[in-house]
Specification:
Layout lengths: L4 E6 L3 H22 L7 H8 L5 E2 L2 H16 L9 H6 L12 H8 L7 E4 L4 E4 L12 H15 L4 E6 L3 E5 L8 E7 L2 E11 L2 E7 L4 E4 L2 E4 L2 E2 L4 E2 L4 E8 L2 H22 L5 E6 L5 E4 L2
Antiparallel strand pairs: 1-5, 2-4, 3-4, 5-6, 6-9, 7-8, 9-14, 10-11, 12-13, 14-15, 15-16
């Protein structure tokens, strides 16, 4: 999945702890073999190659993930969309260094983008694309899903205290470190990586962050980030620098950072799921960061 996963964990039994951690890392390697669009032999890559030609049978795991992605897309009015693959490639964010395409190129790519172009058949458990050139990108949910599965492995082995991180941007806090109320996680300043804008104490919950500083390039003095509005085909430029979401599951916190980033704090305040906490950093005369109320 093109990122680094880490685990910090505590247990009274070193052997149990080591076995659980090893199993959790084996699970993330298994998920990478299924979901990575960097690996030609993954199930995800096979869908991208074949689903425009015929319905592709998929595993129950992948089908459930695609169903979840559809729900995120419908709930966000299309601001979350895993069919952004053609846009990532066009703008040079997939194995590239970044480029500003012509408007005609963006229109052509948009013709291949849209979650409604992905047809899921629950009875046959197949995936089909209605349009040639549709390409799914797992970047919006892959890390969060992997973190949640790693936590399940740890819990099933009896581990009650762990912090699991996918790339530092999708994190789950299981229990708390010894003698603490929870795991202390810092949210970085979007323009100064050595500074912290907020510290969150997490206990059996997740925190995910999306920021314009993660992947970007400059052209003509303007910053273009990897976070796209799937409806316009262009990187988001609405003054949002980063969004952090606290939620019960990491797949949910990771997925929801994208539409909140795309649609901004006013929309997020009206549409955030019950029990979620959302932290915005906005650009201006100076960076302003605050929790939504």
């Amino acid at each position: 999945m093109g990122t680094t996963f880490s685990i910090v964990a505590y247990d009274e039994s070193r052997s149990r702890l080591q076995g659980a951690v090893d199993s959790a890392f084996e699970e993330v390697r298994r998920i990478d073999a299924v979901l990575s669009n960097y690996r030609e032999d993954s199930e995800w890559s096979r869908i991208n190659r074949e689903a425009a030609k015929r319905p592709v049978p998929v595993s129950g795991e992948v089908f459930r993930l695609l169903e979840a992605c559809r729900r995120y897309s419908e709930a966000s009015g299309g601001a979350f969309d895993i069919t952004v693959g053609p846009l990532l490639k066009l703008w040079g964010f997939y194995k590239g260094s970044g480029r500003v395409p012509h408007r005609a190129e963006i229109r052509a790519a948009l013709a291949r983008v849209g979650y409604e172009k992905v047809i899921l058949d629950p009875g046959a458990r197949t995936v089909r694309f209605t349009t040639p050139g549709v390409e799914l990108d797992p970047g919006g949910i892959g890390k969060g899903y992997a973190v949640d599965r790693m936590v399940e492995i740890l819990e099933s082995a009896g581990i009650r205290s762990a912090l699991v991180s996918g790339g530092g941007s999708s994190i789950y806090a299981l229990g708390a470190p010894p003698g603490e109320e929870g795991w202390r996680v810092e949210i970085r300043h979007p323009k100064s990586p050595r500074r912290t804008v907020e510290t969150v104490v997490l206990f059996n919950e997740s925190l995910s962050t999306s920021g314009s500083y993660e992947k970007f390039f400059y052209a003509g003095g303007k910053l273009y980030s990897h976070i796209f509005d799937p409806r316009t085909g262009s990187p988001v430029a609405n003054g949002v620098l980063s969004v952090s979401v606290v939620a019960p599951r990491t797949i949910d916190s990771e997925a929801w950072t994208k539409p909140f980033f795309v649609r901004g704090p006013d929309w997020a305040a009206r549409h955030k799921p019950k029990g979620f906490r959302v932290f915005f950093c906005l650009d201006g005369f100076k960076v302003a960061c605050a929790w939504l109320h």
